[in-house]
Every structure is written in C-alpha cells, then in structure tokens.
Amino acid sequence: MEAAAVNAETIAVSASHIGPLFPAGSLSDQSKAKPEIWQKWSEFEAAAKNAETLAEQLRDAARAKDQARVEAMVKEFGAKACGACHTPFRQPAR
Fold first, then answer.
1. Whether 53 contacts 94, CB under 8 Å
2. Cβ pair 48, 85 in contact under 8 A
3. Cα separation of 23 and 17, whole Å?
4. Per 3-state DSSP, what percentage of the chain is helix, strand, and coil (rounded to 5)?
5. I want to staple 79 with a disulfide (CB 3.0 to 4.6 A). Which of 13, 51, 58, 83 is the partner?
C-alpha cells in the first residue's frame, strides 16, 4: 500500500504542473497535443485538476490501507483521471 500511496502522490504532483507545460503558442508538429488544449483552456485545466484530485484521493485511500477503495479506484483511474485529459486533448500515437 505504501508504494501505491507514493505513486499516487507522484501523479498528483505531476498533474499540478501540467498547465505551465503548455504555454500559448507551444503547439508543434512533434507534439501529440491537440489544438483543443488552447481552444478549451478552462476545460484542459479542469481535466488536469481532476487528475490531481483523483490521485490525491487514491493516495489517501492507500495511506488509510483501504484495500477495497484502492482497488476500486485503480480500476477506474486510467479512464477517469488520465483519460479525461488524454482523450480530448491528446493525439493518438502515430
């Protein structure tokens, strides 16, 4: 459980730094970022904040050694946390 807590904390901290990684005008052909990031900036920021919040909740469940909650959260984490940003704002792999 400690490893899950540490990893979830790492995700939460990383998610809190997502916005500044995408300054206006930084879109390039080499990036997988979609233009929608800048067109729908508030939605992009909300998706990053959502990932941060869900990671913090997962961290807290792991620290509390709540096995059932951790397992339930892990099953949905990819879609609800990562996917909420990657699906609308990231190009598929080329």
1. no
2. yes
3. 12
4. 70, 0, 25
5. 83
**Helix or strand or coil: residue 24?**
coil
Q: Is 92 helix (H, G, I), strand (E, B) or coil?
A: coil
Interatomic CA distance for residues 16 and 45, integer angstroms: 10
What 3-state DSSP class applies to 1? coil
CA dist 81 and 85 (Å) reads 7
The residue extents of the domains of the chain are 1-11+41-94
The answer to whether the beta carbons of residues 70 and 61 sit under 8 Å apart is yes
Q: The pTM is what? A: 0.91
